[in-house]
Write a structure and sequence with these properties.
By secondary structure, the protein is of the alpha+beta class. 48% of the residues lie in helices and 15% in strands. The chain is built from 24 helices and 22 strands. The strands form four sheets. The chain has a seven-stranded mixed sheet, sandwiched between helices. The protein has a six-stranded antiparallel sheet with strand order 2-1-3-9-4-7, with no helix packed on it. The chain has a six-stranded antiparallel sheet with strand order 12-17-16-15-14-13.
Length: 717
C-alpha cells in the first residue's frame, strides 16, 4: 500500500473531521521564532471594508488590523512633514549667506539671521520631531540606532547655528540642517511606502472574499454579511461570483477558478459533494454549497495568517542586519566624536570640525541596512504565497538553499495520485471478484486516500451498493479492518501479508507500475485489487532541475518493491525505499543526516509529522485540506514537485538578495564614512552633510529596487 499509510490513516479521514473545532490558533511551527514579538504595525489591509466587520467579531479580523491604521497614519504624517519642511527649506536656502556666496548673488533682508533662525526652528522641531522622538525611544531601550544618529546630527547643527545667531563666532549652516531633515523625511517616507508595498499579497488575499453571501432559507434566498454566515448554512453561488466560504457542493456542478488560492491556472471541475474554497471564482453554473468553515477556520484566513506570520518573523539574516546596524551605530558615534577631536587637534576651526562630525553621522545612518533584509523578507513571502508556497518558518525557507537530499512521498507527489482499478482478482472460490470489490469498498467509502478513491470510483461505475462497516479500525501503516455483514474484512498492504506469513499470489503483480492491495476475509486471503497511478509529467522536469543543482532525489513509499523500482527507474531517481512504515521514514531521514546530507522531507503533514519534524526542512504537500499540517516548515498548495524546485531556487535567490543588500548597505558606509571624516582633505575633496544625506537616501532606494527585482526570480530554473 503506497506511502505505508492506510487509507483512513493517511488523511486522518477529513470527511469526518469537524474542522470548526480544530484549534488553528496553535498552528505554530516548533522551530519558528517567537511570533509574540512580531511587529504587526506594518501590515497593510487598506482594501478591507472595515465598515462591514462586526467590532466584536475578532475571528473575522486578520492579524495586524490595528497596527495597519497606525502605519498608514505614520506614512501620512511623514508625507505631511516632508512637504512642510520642503516649503520652508526653499526660503532657508535662498536667504542663506553661504548659498548666496556659492551662486554669486546677494539678497539679505534686515534681520536675515533671525529669519533663518525662525524658519529653521520650525523645521527642526516640526520636521525633526519623528527623529527626536525616536532618539528618546532608542535611549530608553538602551539600543541606539539610526534615530539616535539622525537626532544627534540635526541637534548639533541646529544648536550650533542658533548659537552663532546670538553671538557665537562662526558660520551657521541652517541650510544644511533644513536639507538634511527634508532628505531624511523623504527617505523614511520612501522606505515606509516600500515596506508597505511588500504586503500587497495580503491585501489581495483579503480582498478575494466577497462582502456578502446568498443564504438559502427554505424557498427564499437572503443576502447577508459574510461575518453572519454560520457553519452548516446553505449558500447560493451564482455564475461569476466568488465563493464566500469553504464548503461542500450540495447541488449543481461548475468549473471553479482557484488560481489565486492554489496557483493552478486551469479551472477545476467541481461536482456534488466536492469541496470548494472560499475566495475561488465560480464559472458559468449556479451552485448550492453547505458551509464548512467560516472566520478563522477558513482556508483563506489560515493562508493570510501564515503569510502574515512569515512576513513578520525575524529570520537569522534579519538578526544579522540588526546586529550590524547596532555596531555601525557605535562605530559611527566613535568616529564622529573622534573626527571632531582630530580636526580640533589639527588646529581647524570648531565649526569646520563640527561639520565633519555632523557629516560622518549623516553618512553613517544605517537606513539601507535597516531596510535591506526586512524588504526582501516581505517581498519573498508575498511572492511565494502568490505562487503556492506558504512559508511558516522563515529560517527553514532561507536554509532551503542548503538542501542536498530530497526525500519524496510517491503517491500524489511524484505521481498524480489518481488511481484507477485495473484488475480485481479472487483467490478464494467462495468469493467472486465482484464480491471482493464490494466488501473492500465498505472500508474505503469514507477515506480520501487515492487508493480508496480509486476503489470507490470503480464501485460507482459498476453501480455496486456499498455495505456499511462496523467496528472500523486502522492498522497503523498497513491497512484498515472492519466487520461487514458479519465477516471480518481487511484491506492491507503486501507488508501486512509478509508480517502475518501469508503467501502473496505469484500473479499479483502483472505490471510494475501497478499498486496492489489485498483483501482478507475472516483471516484468509480472498483476493486482491490492482490500481495504476500515472507519473506526473512535471516530475521528470523537476528532477532534472534538482540534479542540475546537485540535489539527490530519493523516494520513500509504502508501495511494493516492484512498483517503487519502476517509478524510480523511469524518473531517474538516486534511490528509493519500498514498503516503508511511517516510523521508518524518520530513520531514513536520520540516516541521511548522519551522512552529512541537508535533508528536505515531503509529506502530507499529518502522518508524516515525525519525519517532517526530523528533517532540516519539512515540506507539506497537498490540497487546502492539508494546510493544518502542524510540523511542516513550508506548505505547497499543490502536490506538484516542480513547486519544490521553485521553492529551493527561490530560496537561493532570496538569500542572494539579502547578501547583496547587506554588502551594499555596509560597503557604502565603509567607503562613505572616511570621506565624510575628511581623509581626502589634502586632495581638496570634502563630503558635505547635504551631499552625504543625498547619497544615504540613494543607497536606501538602490536597496529597495534590488529587493523588488526578487519578484522576477520566482519560477526561474
Amino acid at each position: 500500500m503506497d506511502d505505508n499509510k492506510n487509507h483512513k490513516d493517511k488523511k486522518m479521514d477529513h470527511s469526518k473531521m469537524d474542522h470548526s473545532k480544530m484549534d488553528h490558533s496553535k498552528m505554530e511551527d516548533p522551530k519558528s521564532t517567537d511570533h509574540s514579538k512580531m511587529d504587526h504595525s506594518k501590515m497593510d489591509h487598506s482594501k478591507m471594508d472595515h465598515s462591514k466587520m462586526k467590532h466584536g467579531d475578532h475571528d473575522s479580523i486578520p492579524m495586524g488590523m490595528a497596527g495597519h491604521d497606525h502605519h498608514k497614519m505614520m506614512i501620512a504624517d511623514f508625507r505631511k512633514r516632508f512637504w512642510v519642511t520642503l516649503v520652508l527649506t526653499v526660503p532657508i536656502l535662498f536667504f542663506s549667506p553661504m548659498i548666496q556666496e556659492f551662486f554669486g548673488y546677494s539678497f539679505l533682508l534686515p534681520g536675515n539671521p533671525y529669519i533663518l533662525f525662525a524658519l529653521s526652528t520650525v523645521v527642526y522641531f516640526y520636521g525633526g520631531w519623528p527623529f527626536l522622538k525616536g532618539l528618546v525611544s532608542e535611549i530608553k531601550k538602551g539600543a541606539p540606532g539610526m534615530m539616535t544618529l539622525i537626532s544627534m546630527a540635526i541637534s548639533v547643527a541646529y544648536f550650533y547655528s542658533s548659537a552663532t545667531v546670538f553671538g557665537l563666532q562662526g558660520v551657521d549652516f541652517f541650510w544644511e540642517l533644513a536639507t538634511l531633515i527634508a532628505i531624511m523625511l523623504l527617505g523614511h517616507w520612501i522606505e515606509m511606502k516600500s515596506v508597505l508595498g511588500a504586503s500587497k499579497a495580503l491585501q489581495l488575499l483579503v480582498s478575494m472574499m466577497p462582502a456578502e453571501a446568498h443564504r438559502v432559507k427554505g424557498d427564499t434566498i437572503e443576502d447577508i454579511k459574510l461575518e453572519d454566515l454560520l457553519k452548516d448554512d446553505v449558500i447560493l453561488v451564482k455564475p461569476g461570483e466568488k465563493v464566500p466560504a469553504d464548503g461542500i457542493i450540495t447541488e449543481g456542478s461548475s468549473y471553479l477558478n482557484e488560481s489565486m488560492l492554489t496557483g493552478e491556472s486551469k479551472p477545476v471541475k467541481k461536482e456534488l459533494n466536492d469541496k470548494v474554497i472560499g475566495g475561488s471564482v465560480n464559472g458559468n453554473s449556479t451552485l448550492k454549497v453547505k458551509v464548512e468553515h467560516t472566520g478563522k477556520d477558513s482556508y483563506l484566513n489560515k493562508v493570510i495568517k501564515m503569510v502574515e506570520e512569515a512576513q513578520k518573523t525575524k529570520s537569522k539574516m534579519q538578526n544579522l542586519s540588526d546586529r550590524a546596524a547596532k555596531w555601525l551605530t557605535y562605530i559611527a558615534l566613535a568616529i564622529g566624536f573622534g573626527t571632531l577631536a582630530v580636526w580640533l587637534i589639527l588646529g581647524f576651526p570648531f565649526v569646520y570640525a563640527l561639520e565633519r562630525m555632523v557629516t560622518v553621522m549623516v553618512i553613517a545612518c544605517p537606513h539601507a541596512l535597516g531596510l535591506a533584509i526586512p524588504l526582501v523578507v516581505a517581498i519573498s513571502t508575498a511572492v511565494s504565497a502568490q505562487n503556492g508556497l506558504l512559508i511558516r518558518n522563515r529560517t527553514a525557507f532561507e536554509e532551503s538553499r542548503k538542501i542536498s537530499a530530497l526525500l519524496f512521498d510517491k503517491t500524489g507527489t511524484l505521481t498524480k495520485g489518481d488511481f484507477g482499478v485495473t484488475r480485481i482478482e479472487s483467490v478464494d472460490k467462495n468469493y467472486s471478484s465482484a464480491e471482493v470489490l464490494r466488501l473492500a469498498s465498505a472500508l474505503e467509502q469514507s477515506s480520501e486516500h487515492p487508493i480508496a478513491v480509486g476503489i470507490i470510483k470503480k464501485v460507482k461505475e459498476d453501480s455496486v451498493v456499498v455495505p456499511k462497516p462496523e467496528n472500523f479500525n486502522a492498522i497503523t501503516g498497513k491497512g484498515v479492518e472492519a466487520n461487514v455483514e458479519g465477516k471480518q474484512v481487511k484491506v492491507v498492504s503486501p507488508g501486512y501479508l509478509r508480517d502475518e506469513k501469508i503467501d502473496i499470489p505469484e500473479d499479483a503483480y502483472s505490471d510494475a507500475a501497478e499498486t496492489v492491495v489485498f483483501v482478507l476475509i475472516d483471516g484468509k486471503l480472498a483476493g486482491y485489487i490492482a490500481l495504476a497511478d500515472e507519473i506526473r509529467p512535471e516530475s521528470a522536469e523537476a528532477i532534472k532541475i534538482f540534479k542540475k543543482n546537485n540535489i539527490k532525489v530519493l523516494m520513500a513509499t509504502g508501495d511494493n518493491e516492484k512498483t517503487a523500482k519502476a517509478v524510480s527507474e523511469k524518473l531517474g531517481l538516486d534511490g528509493y525505499y519500498a514498503e516503508v512504515l511511517p516510523h521508518q521514514k524518520v530513520e531514513i531521514v536520520d540516516e541521511l543526516q548522519n551522512k552529512g546530507e541537508f535533508v528536505a522531507m515531503t509529506g502530507d503533514g499529518v502522518n508524516d509529522a515525525p519525519a517532517l519534524a526530523k528533517a532540516n526542512v519539512g515540506i507539506a504537500v497537498g490540497s487546502g485540506t492539508d494546510v493544518a499540517a502542524e510540523t511542516a516548515d513550508i506548505i505547497l498548495v499543490n502536490s506538484n514537485p516542480q513547486d519544490i524546485a521553485n521553492l529551493i531556487l527561490f530560496g537561493k535567490a532570496t538569500y542572494n538578495k539579502m547578501i547583496q543588500n547587506l554588502i551594499w548597505a555596509t560597503g557604502y558606509n565603509v567607503v562613505a564614512i572616511p570621506l565624510a571624516a575628511g581623509v581626502l582633505y589634502s586632495s581638496g575633496f570634502v563630503l558635505g552633510p547635504a551631499v552625504g544625506a543625498v547619497f544615504m537616501s540613494l543607497s536606501t532606494i538602490i536597496v529597495a529596487i534590488n529587493a523588488q527585482l526578487l519578484k522576477r526570480k520566482i519560477g526561474k530554473k
